[in-house]
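Working notes for the structural subgroup meeting. M.R. asked for a predicted model of this chain before we commit to crystallization trials. I am recording the input and output together here so anyone reviewing the notebook later can reproduce the run.

Input as submitted:
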Amino acid sequence: MANRRTVIAGNWKMFKTTGEATDYAVRFLEEVKEVTDLDIILCAPFTALYTLKNELEESIVHLGAQNMAWADQGAYTGEISAQMLLDVACTYVILGHSERREMFGETDEEIAKKVRQALATGLTPIVCCGENLNLREEGKAVERVQGQVTRALEGLSTEELSKIIVAYEPIWAIGTGKTASSKDAQEMCASIRATLKVLMGLAAEKVPILYGGSVKAENIAELMTEPDVDGALVGGASLDPLSFAKLILNAVPSSVSVEEGI
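Returned structure, recorded in token form:
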């Protein structure tokens, strides 16, 4: 893993009220309070961020958002700026998630603008990329993913590129119960790292690359054995605090797994 730090990020998507977020934080922090071998990020809906700011203060858990605008401020009804995220203690933001691309029509150009805005304001972007089943079956998966990464990041300096996280999420494995094999995940993460090397040289060895797509407590350990898989972007399995804590502990080889329901 070339001394890259392991990152496990939970993406709650459009789940959890503020009350549910508070309850989750209390239970989750108790389970992971002694984890020091990796970075834990909770990416919550905008409405839950202020609540989580108060609950997670001085804890080991970092706070992230699921999207943001590329503009500083202005007449952009319904949008949330980077400064607003910083104001509620966010340090990470997911950008270019496949659901944003597929359902809301976000383009590579828009995502690139958002990446630049995040970096300019001090947020760490978690830049997502991935292919659908048709592209994989047509043998065009690597081409699509490398193109997404290049278009999102080209023109950035090596210093800027060193501050990003990339998350590979095969669209056909998100929420479907299907998971890319650890070999599939490794092959694509290695191709992403090769793309990063074109953009930033050997410094690419320091960029964390996460896998996302039906990651669970039961398969995280195998995924983490692959040399270019540095962690996970976790969807459904992050919604229950005890299950997500179990996943996190299973991602750390030296950890003792917790039992769900305790």
